[in-house]
């Protein structure tokens, strides 16, 4: 555990990518084999299920520390992180020459907590904390609560393992994909020997694109070298058909096969050894439906006939990654597209569609075509180099996402709450309202978009202009106006405004506007009618 805690500390204290990769590389070369596979699991979102309720954990820590609940809550508000708060408050002395159990020992103990009665859980947790120093307690609590927010991407882990064991990075990335668990595989089988158990189901690492501005588009060179596809607002996924079995994966490496039975039925007719990359779209009568309908699929354990009828889906395929069991990612996009079109034409299935590209001879012409994006219910264009291979991760150069400008609305700050982490002592989470008659109706929450300097100014305003307090939330004297940007708008029965925004964030602080000049609920409803 000491080595893992030191790794976390090193990563947390560095903002240099090379230093993080070096620390990861050293760890994977020296760590216990069982610790390596669990570390991989933790960094690739395969964490052990939570076995202890956070409220119960807080209650025990308060008892152990013999402090009032209000003091714990005030400490938590200042620190902004539950695990760090617990590590600082625990009254236990630092262990002297304690046994350094490996990481997997503590994870196994966490898993063993599940069936225990609360009294036995408390005893076991207390004994564990007594073995650990302050940093190890922090890391252990993170493991237990699932509250990881580390500056480690899967790409960094892939780089570190690639360098440590001299394995091609793309091969490492592929081996990390799939439905493996630390309990069912070893580090050696997964990384060094490439275990065979889940190769049938395993998808490919997704190729992702960076955003590009209107001005940068004009610097891409000759339009004839590029392909412009509409950027659909759905769930990015891969459909895998191998050995007559079908698997559907999301970009987040979740196996979502059972959520889309109509896509499984479609894919059963695909040639064996086929992997498609594309977008799962709610779709009916020739056009996309609101993205929210997809959430009715993902959020349900059982997809009923009623849901299938109210939220029909298709698969917009825009790439072919495997054909007849052969990995064809190194072929050019143009070659892959030709094979993909031929494949789709041979299927004749309404749930499988090709993602068409637009013809254009100049970037100005494409910019004009892009103006149709919202009417077509797309987010803009994906620009792809015609001769590009299918790469791994988010790369610059061959693929770009050229999105339309977001929708915007001006709202008034009415509630504020402190943030987390480095913003734990600053009011940085905001609720904004729009006018309905003479009342401000809350319509969006936003916690990103302002600079650190602006957040400090808003924080000072909130502290001087608090009207009421409700736990961590403050009601603020309405005055400050912010322009809120968002990607989509839809009707919502859960919100007082009757409207929900997709990806709301602060676009700018409208210091030039008085609060009376903020937008109205009627104007929001007009946007809903136009773009919802």
UniProtKB/TrEMBL annotation:
Domain of life (superkingdom): Bacteria
Protein name, entry field: DNA ligase (ATP)
The entry's keywords: ATP-binding, Cell cycle, Cell division, DNA damage, DNA recombination, DNA repair, DNA replication, Ligase, Magnesium, Metal-binding, Nucleotide-binding
Family annotation (InterPro entries): ATP-dep_DNA_ligase, ATP_dep_DNA_lig_pp_1105_fam, DNA_ligase_ATP-dep_C, DNA_ligase_ATP-dep_cent, DNA_ligase_ATP-dep_CS, DNA_ligase_ATP-dep_N, DNA_ligase_N_sf, NA-bd_OB-fold
PROSITE patterns: DNA_LIGASE_A1 (PS00697), DNA_LIGASE_A3 (PS50160)
Catalytic activity: ATP + (deoxyribonucleotide)n-3'-hydroxyl + 5'-phospho-(deoxyribonucleotide)m = (deoxyribonucleotide)n+m + AMP + diphosphate
NCBIfam families, per database record: DNA_lig_bact, PRK09247.1
Record keyword tRNA-binding present: no
Ranges of residues in domain ATP-dependent DNA ligase family profile: 306-436
Keyword Nucleotide-binding (UniProt): yes
Name of the gene this protein is made from: lig2
Classification via PANTHER family: DNA LIGASE 1/3 FAMILY MEMBER, DNA LIGASE-RELATED
């Amino acid at each position: 555990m000491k080595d893992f805690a030191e790794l976390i500390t090193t990563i947390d204290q560095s903002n240099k990518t090379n230093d993080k990769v070096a620390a990861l590389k050293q760890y994977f070369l020296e760590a216990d084999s069982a610790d390596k596979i669990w570390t991989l699991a933790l960094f690739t979102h395969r964490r052990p299920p939570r076995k202890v309720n956070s409220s119960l954990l807080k209650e025990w820590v308060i008892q152990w520390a013999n402090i009032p609940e209000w003091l714990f809550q005030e400490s938590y508000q200042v620190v902004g992180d539950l695990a760090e708060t617990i590590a600082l408050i625990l009254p236990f002395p630092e262990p002297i020459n304690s046994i350094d159990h490996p990481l997997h020992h503590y994870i196994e103990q966490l898993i063993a907590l599940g069936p225990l009665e609360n009294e036995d859980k408390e005893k076991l947790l207390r004994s564990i904390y007594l073995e650990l120093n302050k940093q190890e307690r922090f890391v252990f609590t993170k493991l237990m609560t699932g509250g990881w927010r580390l500056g480690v991407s899967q790409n960094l882990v892939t780089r570190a393992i690639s360098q440590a064991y001299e394995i091609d990075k793309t091969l490492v990335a592929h081996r990390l994909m799939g439905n493996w668990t630390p309990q069912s595989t070893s580090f050696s089988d997964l990384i060094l020997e490439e275990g065979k158990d889940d190769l049938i189901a395993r998808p490919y690492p997704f190729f992702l694109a960076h955003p590009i501005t209107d001005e940068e588009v004009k610097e891409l060179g000759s339009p004839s070298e590029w392909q412009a596809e509409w950027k659909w607002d759905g769930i990015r996924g891969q459909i895998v058909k191998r050995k007559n079995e079908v698997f559907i994966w999301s970009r987040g490496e979740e196996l979502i096969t059972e959520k889309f039975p109509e896509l499984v039925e479609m894919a059963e007719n695909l040639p064996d050894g086929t992997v498609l990359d594309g977008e799962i779209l709610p779709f009916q009568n020739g056009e996309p439906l609101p993205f929210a309908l997809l959430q009715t699929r993902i959020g349900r354990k059982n997809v009923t006939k009623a849901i299938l009828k109210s939220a029909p889906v298709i698969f917009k395929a825009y790439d072919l990654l495997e054909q007849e069991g052969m990995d064809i990612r190194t072929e050019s996009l143009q070659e892959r597209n030709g094979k993909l079109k031929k494949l789709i034409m041979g299927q004749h299935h309404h749930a499988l569609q090709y993602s068409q590209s637009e013809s254009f001879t100049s970037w100005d012409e494409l910019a004009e075509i892009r103006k149709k994006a919202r009417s077509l219910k797309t987010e803009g264009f994906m620009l792809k180099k015609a001769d590009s291979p299918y790469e791994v991760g988010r790369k610059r150069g061959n693929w770009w996402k050229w999105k339309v400008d977001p929708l915007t609305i001006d709202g008034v700050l009415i509630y504020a709450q402190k943030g987390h982490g480095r913003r734990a002592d600053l009011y940085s989470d905001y609720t904004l309202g729009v006018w309905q008659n003479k009342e401000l109706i809350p319509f969006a929450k936003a916690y990103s978009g302002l600079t650190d300097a602006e957040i400090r100014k808003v924080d000072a305003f909130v502290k001087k202009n608090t009207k009421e307090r409700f736990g961590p939330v403050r009601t603020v004297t309405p005055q400050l106006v912010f322009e809120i940007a968002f990607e989509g708008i839809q009707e919502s029965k859960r919100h007082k405004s009757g409207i929900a925004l997709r990806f709301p964030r602060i676009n700018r602080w409208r210091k030039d506007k008085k609060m009376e000049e903020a937008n109205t609920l009627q104007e929001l409803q007009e946007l809903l009618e136009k773009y919802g």
